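Design request, tokens follow.
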């Protein structure tokens, strides 16, 4: 059977599917698997030093139609996605499904599980048991972040970066040992998510880490948000012409290119959501179109329906505002230097930075030019009618 990477000349197309998507009417049967090589399931949690189910109902209890959409009596998204005879794997046999553990909200105990020989053994043993029990093809460690950064209340230690390498090295060994002992011809894959800026790379020996992983996912987004004081691009490919942007996908990638031996392990993360800003301090003679302008707040649902905490909004919910004559009087713009689209409503003093087909295609062309491993997207349910993921699917098929 051909693997995804042999089908698409090594090009990786990775999409996150979130457990909570089912509560927003996006179920696993809606995943456009023809546009993917890997599916990351977000998220598993950490409890008592072991990997644990994140949402029991969504993960293993919810029942889907079809007698084969369970695995060893396991229902939920896990059963649907990982049943060898189920609808998903019969249709998309090329896809590797991987469980992502941690993320922004559930990274608080990574420092603890990575800290000692005993805690690393306990955690990695639980990972092997979890992955094989639920029939995943591997795992992504989404530690946000070693040593510093991440959500307030996370545990930290000055040796987090070193211990991260030790944890992944042991996990790689445990997966190989399991496959050998069970005499199964399967290579369990390991991925890691890394920050676009300093939080992972500055604190971790990426060169050593890369020896034990298959995929390094550079989260090249959230360059701006409610934590800033001026509007900035959220996921720009390059710096703007005046070098106002402090970071770009290009600078992030080059940061990691200097730290890895095999650049094919690097994938560039792209967002299927936007960052929005409101109460812009706009001068009467302003010609900036809202970029690099001070703001006092981010929109709430009274300003933009379906906007989320911190001014984030899914591309599918933003799409109507990209059209002419929209209700919020947004005008569409594209910074060709930064390869960054944005929306600006001068009347309502709002500004939105997002990803669209044009900017995404620019990134896909860039990925091919740089000859790295591929692309990752957060997350599939946020797309508008599969328009963005289809752009990636086209690039994936052209890589054959």
């Amino acid at each position: 059977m051909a693997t995804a990477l042999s089908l698409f000349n090594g090009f990786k197309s990775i999409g996150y599917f979130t457990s909570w998507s089912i509560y927003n009417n996006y179920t696993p049967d809606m995943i456009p698997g023809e546009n993917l090589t890997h599916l990351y399931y977000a998220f598993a949690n950490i409890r008592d030093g072991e990997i644990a189910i994140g949402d029991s109902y969504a993960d293993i209890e919810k029942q889907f139609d079809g007698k084969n959409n369970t695995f060893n009596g396991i229902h939920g998204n896990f059963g649907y996605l990982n049943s060898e005879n189920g609808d998903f794997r019969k249709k998309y046999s090329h896809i590797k499904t991987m469980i992502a553990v941690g993320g922004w909200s559930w990274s608080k105990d990574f420092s603890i599980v990575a800290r000692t020989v005993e805690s690393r053994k306990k955690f990695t043993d639980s990972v092997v048991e979890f992955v094989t029990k639920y029939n995943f093809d591997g795992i992504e460690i989404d530690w946000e972040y070693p040593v510093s950064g991440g959500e307030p209340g996370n545990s930290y230690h000055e040796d987090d970066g070193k211990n991260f390498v030790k944890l992944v090295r042991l996990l790689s060994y445990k997966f190989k040992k399991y496959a050998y002992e069970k005499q199964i011809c399967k290579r369990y894959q390991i991925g890691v998510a890394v920050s676009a800026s300093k939080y992972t790379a500055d604190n971790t020996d990426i060169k050593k880490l890369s020896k034990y992983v298959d995929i390094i996912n550079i989260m090249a987004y959230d360059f701006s948000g409610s934590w800033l004081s001026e509007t900035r691009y959220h996921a720009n490919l390059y710096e703007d012409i005046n070098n106002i942007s402090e970071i770009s996908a290009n600078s992030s990638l080059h940061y990691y290119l200097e730290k890895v031996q095999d650049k094919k392990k690097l994938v560039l993360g792209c967002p299927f959501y936007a960052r929005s800003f409101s109460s812009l301090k706009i001068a009467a003679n302003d010609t900036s179109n809202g970029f690099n302008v001070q703001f006092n707040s981010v929109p709430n649902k009274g300003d933009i329906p379906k906007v989320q905490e911190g001014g984030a909004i899914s591309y599918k919910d933003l799409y109507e505002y990209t059209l002419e004559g929209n209700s919020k009087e947004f005008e569409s713009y594209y910074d060709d230097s930064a390869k960054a689209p944005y929306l600006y409503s001068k009347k309502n003093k709002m500004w939105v930075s997002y990803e669209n087909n044009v900017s995404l295609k620019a990134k896909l062309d860039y990925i091919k030019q740089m000859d790295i491993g591929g692309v990752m997207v957060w997350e599939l349910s946020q797309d508008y009618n599969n328009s963005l993921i289809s752009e990636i699917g086209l690039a994936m098929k052209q890589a054959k």
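Comment from the thread starter after seeing the answer: thanks! Residues 160-182 form the longest helix (23 residues).
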